[in-house]
Amino acid sequence: MSCCDLAAAGQRDAQSLLCSQLGKAGIMASDCEPALNQAEGRNPTLERYLGALREAKNDSEQFAALLLVTKAVKAGDIDAKTRRRIFDAVGFTFPNRLLTTKEAPDGCPDHVLRALGVALLACFCSDPELAAHPQVLNKIPILSTFLTARGDPDDAARRSMIDDTYQCLTAVAGTPRGPRHLIAGGTVSALCQAYLGHGYGFDQALALLVGLLAAAETQCWKEGEPDLLAVLRGLSEDFQKAEDASKFELCQLLPLFLPPTTVPSECLRDLQAGLARILGSKLSSWQRNPALKLAARLAHACGSDWIPAGNSGSKFLALLVNLACVEVRLALEETGTEVKEDVVTACYALMELGIQECTRCEQSLLKEPQKVQLVSVMKEAIGAVIHYLQQVGPEKQKEPFVFASVRILGAWLAEETSSLRKEVCQLLPFLVRYAKTLYEETEEANDLSQQVATLAISPTTPGPTWPGDALRLLLPGWCHLTVEDGPREILIKEGAPSLLCKYFLQQWELTSPGHDTSVLPDSVEISLQTCCHIFLNLVVTAPGLIKRDACFTSLMNTLMASLPALVQQQGRLLLAANVATLGLLMARLLSTSPALQGTPASRGFFAAAILFLSQSHVARATPGSDQAVLALSPDYEGIWADLQELWFLGMQAFTGCVPLLPWLAPAALRSRWPQELLQLLGSVSPNSVKPEMVAAYQGVLVELARANRLCREAMRLQAGEETASHYHMAALEQCLAEP
């Protein structure tokens, strides 16, 4: 009997024996479990047949010997060593020829020989070492094509080949570098097409896709984005239409198929509609929790963009946040109950969405009564979070759920510090210690961040990465709290200012020369700006701390060294404003420091500060008028709303520094700032200069004139007395009238 005759026996002979006997030991491999040899000695019959297999001179002899081997072993009675010896006897050459043959003998269907080749590979792949063998890996493209090949769906041999193909690919996926090889071999697209075709084995395609996305999400989307989006569209549509228990299963699958980039609008529409029906019904926890996690994943990836505007959208968002708050309270208020951390963390993400929408002034999805109600329920949930954190001991501080709880508290404190003030103050010592612990172990903190993201959303990495340091989460809230006497005293007592100085210097290093600032996340610059705001609060409310704590001397040195380069960088004007204003205010308090006595660093800093202050306004011609008006310069105009308070504070601080630093007035004169300022005022209409601008300019000019005779003379030469008269600057006019 020829090889083809054996194969064409339809499962009676060739594949029946291969799949039923050797299959359970390897070829089918789906229910293969290694078993120990029944005796230490080798089976002589098996040895004889293996010898025949090794000595076979052609494919027919090799195939016949292989059938004899299957008769010598019983299903389940073959161990890994014996399976490996069978492979050593067969090798890859024979299955390779079966897989790649293009011409089958007469009467033999084309796919039968390929099916036998795949069956042999499935046998070999039951050995993890062989599953990672190059001869298996280079078959991935061929195997992937079998998943989408056309043929009779009722053909048993074809179905067997598809099962064996999935067995091979699944075995490869289980090896350390297997997912990468599968993705590179086009398996992702093949699996997507197999699933969308809903042919035999499509459920196996989906299961393998889930595994690949969990193991290598970014690479999967890079190689197969169009096909994965097609699967997402199909799953979303199924989810929207599902009326049975399958919708709860889809809740668990869908988070894995959300792309790291933009989610198609039609998918968002279907997902929201499906979630609205689920969450609007009375559910048990096992039904509700996957829906909350899917909603959290969407909130994390898309904010509120996936929720429609209008009455239905606002009701849905209010429902989401209310359910999340109830879940948080139930989990954290009851002592002794086991917390479902993944569900509660997902609820935190939904609460963050609620906080964002409640604080949004324009185009908010929520109506004012809804905002009031949600703030009330979120306050209760935050109270439960505080209660939980108060119970956290040192041994739990590195757990992801604690980090997630600190994150939601930080999001709340960034917007609301007046409520729960007593509870927040009691928790501040813990928060400072916690932030310090994670700051000192940066690598662990970054890893903790990733664990939180995984815990909160799905078994795979979400789109945007969660921040790795607790301090960045707490900075906005601490900025508000340092304005208040009680919380500020606690923060100072616990060492928060020193920690913040170290953190600022660490973050600043990321923006220093040698680092590519173009790839820095916006969070670094935002953190630096928020730190500056906290330090500004401390300068104003706790000046004694600035004078006595050595960390602020180090901070001042960094500000002086950094500002000259910072003011020259495009797109970083707001950070430069923060640094300049903070440095000027600190210079007033540290004016006796040797570092501020006309050193190169101090001169460079004040020159840069003058550049920031002097370039804010220009004279701009107006049509139909002979006289120009005072206008914001282009770089300042777009961000003046965020900048103006810092600018006025900086002008005031510079004014205060002039009498304290004798070298500053001559330096300002050499920069020609007073002359150019008077020239600017003389070239524009006085009516175009607002009173607060006049006051700020007069303050600087008066102090410079009082501090230095040469400044007074330069101002007189620039028509200073006349300009002072036009702008009703009585103090400047009087000062310039003096000798």
From TrEMBL:
This is Neurochondrin. InterPro entries: ARM-type_fold, Neurochondrin. The gene is NCDN. It comes from the Eukaryota. Transmembrane segments: none annotated. It comes from Balaenoptera acutorostrata. It holds the Pfam family Neurochondrin. Belongs to the neurochondrin family.
